[in-house]
């Protein structure tokens, strides 16, 4: 069987990846605008997979700052006014008090109000003439992150079940690990795809909002938050965990010869 030391090391390693995945899943900083222009177009202070935080008028303030800077064109003014109008029409539930964990303030949707969250993701960028529905992206990311965490637990169980006469447990462990990492990579890809789609909007360009936004990949980098980076780290840690698992099985094979 796999050595006790190897099982313990791999279990601890895998639990770190699982906990990081759960933290990312539960927190509200997947989207965090990094400048006034991005905050204005997104209409929020931060957003996660289960909650949206408006910052109690922060987006309105950012829009006013961008529009008064004079850096954009006449189309920028029209687009900005559309954004302001839509932000003002966001349901009151968005700004209702919430005790959601890891929030920088209490201006977030409560966990039991997923309708408001889906309403937000159903039309992005806020106020854009070519806004698109990204609810499927968010729901897919939720499911993939949850699968990443769940498959991590099953991988631990499969590894612990390995012993002489149960060679299939090793194959099962590798299979579970491959599924876990695939789910993690797919979640990262889906979320980046959503941000890329948002940044590709005709209303999300430099020439309309002056120096507050930059063209290209920088648009995407101005949107992702620390929750997303925690999950990226979890996936990277899980990939290294596959190497740890291979070493565990290698040591197991040597011990069985003696």
General description of the model:
- With 258 residues, this protein is mainly α.
- It has one domain: Butyryl-CoA Dehydrogenase, subunit A, domain 3 (Up-down Bundle), CATH 1.20.140.
- 63% of the residues lie in helices and 2% in strands.
- It is built from ten helices and two strands.
- A two-stranded antiparallel ribbon has the order 1-2.
- The longest helix has 32 residues.
- It starts with a helix and ends with a helix.
- The C terminus is likely disordered.
Count every beta strand, where a strand is a DSSP E run of 2 or more residues. Answer: 2
Chain oligomer state: single chain
CATH topology: Butyryl-CoA Dehydrogenase, subunit A, domain 3
Shape: elongated
Q: What is the name of the CATH architecture?
A: Up-down Bundle
Strand-residue proportion: under 5%
Radius of gyration from the alpha-carbon trace, in angstroms: 22 Å
Sequence of secondary-structure elements: HHEEHHHHHHHH
Q: Largest sheet, order of strands side by side?
A: 1-2
Low-confidence stretches: 91-95, 206-214, 254-258
Number of separate helices: 10
Largest sheet: 2 strands, antiparallel
- Tell me roughly what share of residues is in helical segments: 55-70%
Cα end-to-end separation: 12 Å
The tally of structural domains comes to 1
CATH class membership: Mainly Alpha
- Whole-number mean pLDDT: 76
Secondary-structure content class: mainly alpha
Q: What attributes characterize this protein structure?
A:
258 residues, mainly alpha, Butyryl-CoA Dehydrogenase, subunit A, domain 3, 2 strands
